[in-house]
Recover the amino acids of this structure.
């Protein structure tokens, strides 16, 4: 190899590939090992993207359990440090987000080595140099000053490094963060539930920090496997920083690698790898969250630090069953909710003191009763309450149990002040808990506190911006507050979030309501037809509905829907259909039949009845509205709210007068 072939020059640097040296202006730099190997690989392909996979194959061949992502980032960071380069405005090494790196500087043209000076010239230069030197004391003084200046500079650079929160901008602290779905490095797709569970747990741990806005898991999930760059993701989620990383599970050990990235610049700020036994995974999650909080200089309250410091060992099988339960619960179809219930019960059987499993069970019974109707509310909701109370008994500092109890108190006990108390407690424990804001927003709407309701719904969207349920509730609360222009605008924006037909149906129905209120009949009809198309209606069905509109207007369509709902009722006696029938009668102006079906809802203890109180409905304008409140046992909340009396005092009669449980649920209620 010739001298020119083995030496590559760029800028003031030169790389000697044979000796493995990097020199800056002729001075050898401290760069060896993996950082130098990375530089060598990049120099072999100047201007081309070198993928992370290529670098892994070159630097860590055959290694199956190395956190090569972390090691690679450290190597690149060290290389940039020596080169004086920056990820923000690179001169030599450019980051290609989610792909790899590229060497972008031009090589200097080769030049012959300067001729060596003759012996005589060397002697003359030495004499001249000696004659020109200042006295020894001056050289010592200057040398000391230089050393002190370098020490001061090193201290300042170190201080900047220690206190830097955002790359290149110490005045822009991290106030918002998103945890992207961690990567499963176990090489087993069946372990995805475990990785998803760790992602969810880390998000929850960080979400408990009141001064930090943490994006909900459901919004971050949108970017799993995406090609979006981190700055693009940061813009879409409106966050300052992003946490990404990986999870590796090997028998009874788990390793988590977490990396903190400045979102606008894609600058790598911090990374660390953790490894523990599975029984200590809760403490491991807490440690990761504390380290991230320390790195971004978020000041934790004593209560927050205490919550992140207390984590007892857990039975690995109980934890695994819980993670599988949450994995299926997050899908929220009826079959998978039943799988979730089985796994939560298995976790409780393995560890009866594991509070999150009870909270998961409470949420599952709620969904099976309220959403799918597979379990009648009189059976499912008391089971949900019992599980929520047990979760709170075991861990009063966890927001999930309080939010679950707030849901039961609101939807089933019709205990509005008690529900508000639990919802506020959940939000205090986890200010970033989307479900807590979501539930509290509807509670406030039912209590006619419209401005507060809209504010809470907006908070839910802020922490879960890509969530369809959060955006739907926000639009609903705007409409309930008669802020229809804003509701219209939000519904139009939400239509862009997700093409899922069910979601499109909700938003298009709201747009149809808006047009009807504005007297824009044709536009309302078109939105209604679009909603039906999104829900699965075929072209012939759409044409049939269009014909009904033409012949008898909206009243004809409502009568057709009422006929279908009455048929469903005769077949299944589903409590949700009873409410739909009551609503359709009210829309048709038949208030006598509407209130008869409201009585049927009360008898069934339908969880849909809370919507009886939301917005300026036809029911509210009827004198029988007050009688319904009395029958439901909520007639005292408006007069006694704010007196300081316990919420249980207001509604203690519910538990004797309005509840007819099966033998099983009576036992659970008594025990709760």
């Amino acid at each position: 190899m010739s001298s020119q072939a083995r030496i590559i020059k760029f800028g003031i640097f030169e790389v000697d590939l044979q000796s493995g040296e990097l020199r800056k202006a002729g001075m050898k730099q401290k760069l060896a090992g993996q950082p130098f190997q990375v530089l060598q690989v990049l120099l072999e392909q100047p201007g081309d993207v070198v993928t992370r996979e290529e670098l892994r194959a070159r630097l860590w061949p055959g290694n199956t359990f190395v956190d090569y992502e972390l090691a690679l980032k450290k190597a690149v960071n060290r290389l940039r440090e020596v080169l004086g380069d920056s990820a923000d405005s690179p001169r030599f090494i450019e980051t290609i987000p989610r792909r790899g790196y590229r060497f972008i500087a031009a090589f200097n043209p080769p030049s012959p080595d300067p001729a060596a000076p003759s012996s005589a010239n060397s002697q003359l230069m030495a004499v001249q140099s000696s004659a020109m030197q200042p006295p020894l004391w001056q050289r010592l003084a200057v040398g000391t000053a230089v050393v002190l200046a370098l020490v001061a500079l090193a201290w300042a650079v170190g201080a900047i490094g220690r206190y830097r929160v955002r790359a290149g901008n110490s005045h822009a602290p991290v106030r918002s963060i998103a945890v992207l779905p961690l990567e499963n490095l176990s090489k087993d797709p069946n372990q995805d539930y475990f990785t998803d569970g760790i992602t969810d747990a880390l998000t929850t741990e960080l979400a408990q920090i009141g001064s930090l806005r943490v994006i909900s898991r459901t919004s971050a999930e949108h970017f799993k496997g995406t090609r979006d760059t981190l700055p693009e993701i940061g813009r879409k989620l409106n966050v300052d920083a992003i946490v990404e990383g990986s999870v590796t599970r090997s028998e009874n050990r788990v390793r988590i690698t977490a990396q903190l990235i400045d979102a606008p610049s894609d600058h790598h700020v911090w990374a660390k790898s953790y490894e523990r036994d599975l029984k200590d995974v809760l403490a491991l999650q807490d440690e990761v969250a504390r380290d991230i909080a320390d790195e971004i200089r978020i000041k934790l309250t004593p209560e927050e630090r205490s919550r992140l410091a207390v984590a007892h060992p857990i039975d690995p099988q109980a934890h695994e069953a819980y993670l599988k339960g949450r994995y299926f619960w997050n899908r929220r179809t009826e079959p998978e909710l039943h799988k979730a219930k089985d796994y939560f019960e298995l976790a409780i059987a393995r560890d009866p003191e594991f509070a999150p499993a009870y909270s998961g069970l409470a949420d599952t019974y709620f969904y099976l009763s309220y959403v799918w109707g597979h379990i009648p509310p009189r059976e499912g909701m008391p089971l949900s309450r019992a599980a929520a109370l047990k979760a709170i008994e075991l861990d009063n500092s966890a927001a999930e149990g309080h939010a679950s109890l707030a849901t039961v108190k609101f939807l089933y006990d019709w205990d509005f002040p008690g529900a508000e108390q639990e919802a506020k407690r959940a939000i205090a424990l986890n200010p970033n808990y989307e479900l807590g804001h979501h539930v509290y927003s509807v509670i406030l709407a039912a209590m006619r506190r419209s401005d507060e309701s809209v504010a809470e719904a907006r908070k839910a969207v802020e922490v879960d911006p890509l969530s369809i349920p959060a955006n739907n509730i926000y639009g609903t609360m705007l409409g309930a507050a008669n802020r229809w222009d804003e509701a219209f605008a939000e519904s139009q924006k939400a239509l862009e979030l997700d093409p899922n037909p069910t979601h499109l149906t909700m938003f298009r129905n709201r747009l149809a309501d808006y047009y009807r209120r504005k007297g824009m009949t044709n536009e309302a009809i078109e939105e209604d037809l679009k909603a039906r198309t999104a829900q699965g209606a075929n072209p012939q069905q759409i044409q049939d509905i269009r014909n009904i509109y033409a012949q008898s207007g909206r009243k004809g369509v409502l009568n057709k829907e009422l006929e279908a709902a009455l048929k469903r009722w005769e077949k299944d006696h589903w409590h949700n259909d009873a409410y739909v029938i009551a609503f359709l009668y009210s829309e048709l102006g038949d208030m006598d039949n509407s209130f008869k079906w409201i009585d049927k809802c009360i008898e069934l203890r339908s969880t849909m009845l809370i919507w009886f109180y939301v917005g300026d409905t036809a029911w509210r304008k009827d004198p029988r509205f007050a009688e319904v409140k009395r029958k439901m046992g909520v007639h005292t909340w408006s007069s006694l709210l704010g007196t300081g009396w316990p919420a249980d005092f207001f509604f203690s009669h519910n538990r004797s007068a309005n509840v007819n449980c099966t033998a099983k649920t009576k036992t659970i209620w008594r025990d709760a």
The longest helix spans residues 539-572. Residues 112-171, 635-672 have pLDDT under 50 and may be disordered.
